[in-house]
Amino acid sequence: MDCSISGVLIFGEMDERRASIIEDKLIDILIRAEERGRDSWGIVYLTKKGEFREEKGVGPASSSLAGKRGFLGPDAVAVIANNRAEPTTEVVVEKGIDDIQPFVGDRIAVTHNGTIANDSELERRYGIRKRSRIDSSVLPPLLERAWNGSLEDLQRILRDEVTGSYAVAVLDRSRPGRLWLATNFKPLYVMWDWSANALFFSSMDYYMQDPDKAPWESNVVRRVNPYTVVEIGVDGTWREASLWRSGSGNRRRVLVIASGGLDSTVAATSLKRDGYDVSLLHFNYRHKSEEREREAVREVAKALEVPLIEVNMDFFKLVGHSPLLGEGDVNKARMGEAGAEFAHEWVPARNFVFISLATAIAEAWGFDAVATGVNLEESGAYPDNEMEFIRLLNSVMPYATGPQRRVELLMPVGHLVKHEIVKLGLEIGAPLEHTWSCYENGDKHCGLCGPCYMRRVAFKVNGVRDPVPYSLPPDDEEAFWRGTRDYHRRMNNS
């Protein structure tokens, strides 16, 4: 099922004022959360004496919960709640209290968002019985039978025993004042409310936020990381454990999106030096310098002695609208520094498309990570080279891949500018002499486009002449490279 789960862990002593604040907040959260469930709503709270109290209703929360007060007693220490979206396969026409979440057992209460695909198997394996035909109702008896109460054991059960999707909140009547939260890829957020001295949680961050408040008036909202189980206590406990299954061992496999240029070549060399099992992935996407890039990446793969996967694609012919795809002149009015500091040759969503395809290949072929050559220099002109782009994509990767394979995004040179990338490449022996950076498709680098300009200056800053030739007048070339080592020395002393 696709529901919303919510609740609160209450710190300190309750009084009438705090109870009113917490009730108002819970009702507001449940009404906002109707977008994820309108078939029923439920609230279960645990008292300090270890007793469960229930409030449940059929239909959307706003129809019967709005304006409701006094349901939270002064002895409440923790609350879990649910907005249920009833899936077609689990329609219950005549609902009883046992068919409405949160589900309450003899000792355990659970609210769950997701699908337990092996509920019948768990019943047989552990000799337990659900109180409802709804799959989530297997969780209280399962935990009462199989869980020893530790964070590590809950980690084991959710990771190794339960098949399906989940964000869950668990209360144990034998241990009031403790709350367990866990999620694989279902959304889950927590918020500390200073006015209530309480920790709220819900399926979406904006269910708990007040959009009309200034940042300094708002409470801090934090996402529970995907594939994480957390134990929280009113004694200040916050312990986490990972729900990811073990990877492919110590030598992690990484798929490097490689253009044949400086950045991806240094990134791949750096990863290989750090012990990764590297493979290169190159896209032939029908751009101007495709032939030269293909030659370069093949030579780089040979020099690094790593496998190369090539993908031929016509997708960007449909996209168009870029000089690199043959629409316009790459160099006209875009030479030198001007070409390096603005994205004149922007190809719409290119890195986004490449990363998406690389992620699919990585998941299917058993790679642990996808790496790119995004870098600090080009992030000044290209938004998809910004470190934040990769960081934010990484945060959604658990939702882009299946639960059996974790794929991460790496950016080995993301924090470096071009002359630092050249410096690193020289230090680690990257095959820079085989790389191709030019936007044109000539026999030599044109020396005029933005990438050529950046490359030449980056080598000169490092006091080294670029090992690749340029199609520039020989006298101009000699004049540019003359005094390179002195230039390097002056740069370092400045």
From TrEMBL:
Tell me the residue numbers annotated for binding ATP: 258-268
Q: What class of enzyme is it?
A: ligase
Answer yes or no on keyword ATP-binding: yes
Q: What UniProt keywords apply to this chain's record, in alphabetical order? A: ATP-binding, Ligase, Metal-binding, Nucleotide-binding, Zinc
Q: Which InterPro entries match?
A: GATase_2_dom, Ntn_hydrolases_N, QueC, Rossmann-like_a/b/a_fold
The cofactor remark states:
Binds 1 zinc ion per subunit.
Q: What is its EC number?
A: 6.3.4.20
What GO molecular functions are on record for this protein? ATP binding; ligase activity, forming carbon-nitrogen bonds; zinc ion binding
Q: In which pathway does it act?
A: Purine metabolism; 7-cyano-7-deazaguanine biosynthesis
Q: Which reaction does it catalyse?
A: 7-carboxy-7-carbaguanine + NH4(+) + 2 ATP = 7-cyano-7-carbaguanine + 2 AMP + 2 diphosphate + 2 H(+)
Q: Which residues bind Zn(2+)?
A: 438, 446, 449, 452
Q: What does this protein do?
A: Catalyzes the ATP-dependent conversion of 7-carboxy-7-deazaguanine (CDG) to 7-cyano-7-deazaguanine (preQ(0)).
Q: Which family does it belong to?
A: Belongs to the QueC family.
Put simply, this protein is called: 7-cyano-7-deazaguanine synthase
Query: What species was this sequence derived from?
Result: Thermocladium modestius
> Taxonomic lineage per UniProt?
Archaea, Thermoproteota, Thermoprotei, Thermoproteales, Thermoproteaceae
Q: Which gene encodes it?
A: queC
